[in-house]
Design brief:
15 helices, 2 strands, MetI-like fold, mainly alpha, two-stranded antiparallel sheet, single chain, 292 residues
Amino acid sequence: MRSLRTHLVLYLLVAPVLIYFALFVFYPLAQGIWLSFQKAGMMGPQGFVGLVNYRKIFVTGAVWDAAWNTVAIAAGITVFGTVIPIIPAIALAEITPDPLRRALQTTIYTPYLLSWVIIIGVWMNTLSPIGIVNAVLLALHIITEPIIFFASTTWAQPLVVAQTVWKDMGFHALIYYAALMSIDPEMIEAATMDGAKGWHKIRDLILPHLAPVIGVVFMLTLQGSLHTFDSAYLMSNGRTAEKVTTLAVYAYQKGLLQFDLGMASAAGVVLLVLCLLVAVLSRWLLPKGARV
């Protein structure tokens, strides 16, 4: 009680945050877990069924396919989404004219502000049979007929990965750029005077300095990619559905399209457990300097 009286103001300041998480995170999460043990439809729970929904989950081939799609897409997004933004971040740090640097910052950040509907529309126009990509490939005689990218099972998952990386690249690049601004310029100048070339400075100075930030971006990208929904759902069609249906999309289809909220909740719990396991494993595998 003495501690409560002493730090009452601090407790009052943090109370709204705790209330928010209790109402909009922990309570819905608990409800979802409880619902996964129920037979439930759009009219609500209809009775406790124990582990029946989970048994259905693990004997349904579509769930295993969705889990594999989730892991494969998340792996691609995490690797490329963590590494590629380092390149524009270093480029921004090397640009000296402020107007040009600000213009490039705005340009690479713009896709992050766009909705997924717009992103898919841009990529569909670019990769359509009469789009610029097919036109260039045909003109260079690399292909003999247009590639139907959005109806190809081969290109389905790579496109989801590429679109997500492209959309988030500006945001992650600015995180890296902010970290680069904290490097002591005298250290870079000393390395240059000692004869260090561009790649050596990146390898021996910049990347070690960015290691903790790389760990943060890695974890943010990994957890976000495991919940991939918008891009996968919008990419889904009769030809590509089996390759881009993730666990999040599967839960949506079961819950809101087929009105089986029990199965949908069980799929959501499986996704939650997968996220927690991957987060713990990835944090353990990260180098010590990059752990968060």
